[in-house]
User: Fold Putative sensory transducer protein YfmS from Clostridium luticellarii.
Amino acid sequence: MMNLSDEEFFSAVKASFNVLPELFLSDVGISITDREKYIMAKQPDSFNLNLSVGTKLAENSAAVKAIKTKKRQMARWPKEVFGFPVIAYSIPLVNDFTGNCVGTISYVVSLENENRMMQMVDELKDLSSELAASSQELASSTEELSASTQNINDLVNKTKTGLASMDEILKYINTISDTTNLLGLNAAIESARAGEYGKSFSVVSQEIRKLASNSKDSANQINTTLGEQKENINNIINFIKDFSSTSEAQASQSQKIAESSEKLSELSLNLLNVSKNTME
Assistant:
């Protein structure tokens, strides 16, 4: 410890004043005060604080509080005071040898850029929250749609199974038709053999063969219609399968977007906290 008087100590501090602004990365207004007034002052380049050498310290200023408490003091001024928000720090100049506080080093920093960054971070946080909520809603809707699609797919498969059963019924009708036609043919032959006595039976056999033919024609028409319906249903099934796969992929992507949005929101919050800590 150097045994300096208060005057020598204060003079040494004043001698280093010109290099003090170089210690800051941002543009600052910096000054040295004694216990009553500003002794040295440097205006910032990007804003004006009207720092004037010889101006008396305000009673409620950070500099006066630092002198009285011998501790660093901080003060904030809102935008309405200077046209932009600022934060000021006053560091007491305490001579370790005498224990006296001879003045302060005070510096003022504009918080305009920091406030803009905090505003952008807040907007980013809100945006990421909205994006996360929308993504989750989309994922939920897609999952519901996928479930509905599966239900439709099950219903179509049941219909397809029912159509297959109708194929068996049609085959059975065709078999009956063929058998009936054969019986009608045999009846016509026997009627012809019976001659005059078989005429009435011949009419019956013709009606039987006519019925068999109509049954077969109807069965063929039904079979053709069912074939077309089968093709349509198969097309629907293929479409639903493709749509279901797309829905599942969308649900997966939506979930990933939601997770990314949550991470973005977390990063925004961390950035906001860093910004606040930097300004304090």
Observations:
- The beta strands are 28-33, 38-42, 73-77, 86-94, 101-110.
- Residues 6-110 form a domain with the Beta-Lactamase fold (CATH 3.30.450.20).
